[in-house]
Write a structure and sequence with these properties.
This protein is α+β, with helices and mostly antiparallel strands and 362 residues long. It has helices spanning 11-32, 51-67, 80-83, 88-102, 124-132, 153-158, 246-256, 269-275, 299-307, 339-361; strands at 40-42, 48-50, 73-75, 143-151, 163-170, 173-185, 195-202, 206-211, 221-222, 235-237, 263-264, 281-284, 310-313, 334-338. The strands form three sheets. A seven-stranded mixed sheet has the order 3-4-5-6-7-8-9, with helices on both faces. Strands 11-10-12-14-13 form a five-stranded mixed sheet, sandwiched between helices. A two-stranded antiparallel sheet has the order 1-2. Helix 1 crosses helix 4 (88-102) and helix 2 packs across helix 4. The structure holds 3'-phosphate-adenosine-5'-phosphate sulfate and magnesium ion (3 copies). One magnesium ion is lined by residues 47, 49, 76, 153. The site of one magnesium ion has 6 residues, from strand 4.
Length: 362
């Protein structure tokens, strides 16, 4: 970081969040190569969770608990399944992985007072309690961190894109977002370039990309979403068909005159790609299952888009409300894009929706 950064708002939070996300990314990338079948559980909502998700949440919450002990955390995972007898094997593995990560040698930019380095192993109880620091209900006031330790767990299991996502809300407004993408090439135009990027944005201070393997010493690249035309525009959309209505996206694309094929990518890596100009519109429309979006799936990505000069809203153009609790609640889909195309996308959604309603009446 530059010398004058300590004077900036949220400088300490930014440094800690980048360090915590970087450590969690090293953990998840290394665990992927060693995962065995018994290290994945299916949650009540039928979605997967792995030892990688639990131990990344343990690591990040441990660091936040030490550095900002009064700040509550809304995290995706909880430790209930690890506290029962049948969870012993998973629990042991998570304790081992989290401690390997927390006790790794300090890197430039990290401080031992954050509870990092060889002398800072935790007990199993401390790590389970750290995971459960993420049980906060959220709400409209105060400082609240929100964490998705592995966003795109299905992508992670496929060896494709996933992201470690951390954001700080202050009175329901996202002030800081950090996203680690261990499998994303550092050069947008070259899929064969080195993989592993960290993206971060602070309100009023811009959005940046850093190399994952040199987060504090490497060059930071300022991000700006370029303007686009129907010929250059494409959509960034979910891989999982149950997560967003891809047929609706296709119709919106036709209305806008989009000719390029969509890019399908798991996780908030989609927001990162958009922020660096690698894709034009993040479009996520509900499939009609009644699923409610979670704040940790969009908070960090939303500030990255805004600080890269873009706009994020729901499918009606309404702002996303991060102050309603753990759920985004009342949003109808999500649209993120450059400023020049956002209104056009909202108008195209309105038209596609009207067509759909007319069809269902006839
Ligand atoms: N039914 C349904 N509808 C919409 N969204 C859902 C649904 N189920 C899950 N999720 C959330 O989707 C998160 C992953 O989102 P992605 O955009 O990465 O989806 S996709 O994998 O690219 O299809 C995923 O995040 P993780 O659980 O962190 O992987 C979920 O929070
Ligand atoms: Mg999940
Ligand atoms: Mg997620
Ligand atoms: Mg997750």
């Amino acid at each position: 970081m530059a010398a004058n950064d300590s004077a900036r708002l949220y400088a300490a939070e930014t440094q800690v969040a980048i360090a915590a996300v970087r450590r969690a990314c090293v953990l998840t990338a290394s665990v992927f190569n060693k995962l065995v079948k018994q290290e994945t559980l299916t949650k009540d909502d039928k979605s997967p969770v792995t030892v990688g998700d639990f131990s990344a949440q343990a690591v990040i919450n441990t660091i936040l608990g030490r550095t900002f002990p009064d700040d509550p955390i809304v995290g995706e995972e909880d430790a209930a399944d690890l506290r029962v007898d049948s969870g012993k094997a998973l629990r042991d593995r998570i304790v081992q992985l989290a401690n390997e990560t927390l006790t790794a040698e300090l890197r430039p930019g990290e401080k031992e007072e954050w509870g990092l380095g060889p002398n800072h192993a935790r007990t199993a109880d401390q790590l389970l309690d750290a995971i459960d620091r993420g049980n906060y209900d959220g709400g409209p006031t105060g400082r609240i961190w929100t964490l998705d330790p592995i966003d795109g767990t299905k992508g992670f299991l496929r060896g494709e894109q996933y992201a470690v996502c951390l954001a700080l809300l202050v009175d329901a407004r996202v002030e800081l977002g950090v996203i680690g993408c261990p499998n994303l090439p550092v050069t947008a135009s070259n899929p064969f370039s080195t993989r592993g990027c960290i993206f971060f944005a602070v309100r009023g201070q811009g959005a940046y990309q850093l190399p994952l393997d040199n987060a504090f010493g490497g060059e930071r690249t300022k991000l700006a979403i370029p303007s686009s035309t129907p010929e250059t525009l494409n959509f960034l959309e979910s891989v999982e068909k149950a997560h967003s209505k891809l047929s609706f996206n296709e119709r919106v694309g036709e209305i806008l005159g989009v000719t390029r094929a969509p890019t399908r990518m798991d996780s908030q890596a989609k927001y990162c790609a958009l922020a660096r100009g690698d894709g034009g519109v993040y479009l996520r429309m509900p499939v009609g299952s009644g699923y409610k979006e979670k704040i940790w799936d969009h908070a960090a990505g939303s500030i990255l888009i805004e600080e890269a000069g873009g706009v994020i809203s729901d499918g009606r153009g309404e702002p996303l409300d991060f102050g309603l609790g753990r759920l985004l609640g009342e949003n109808y889909g999500i649209v993120a894009s450059g400023k020049d195309v956002h209104e056009k996308v909202i108008a195209a959604i309105k038209q596609a929706k009207a067509e759909e309603e007319a069809q269902s009446r006839s």
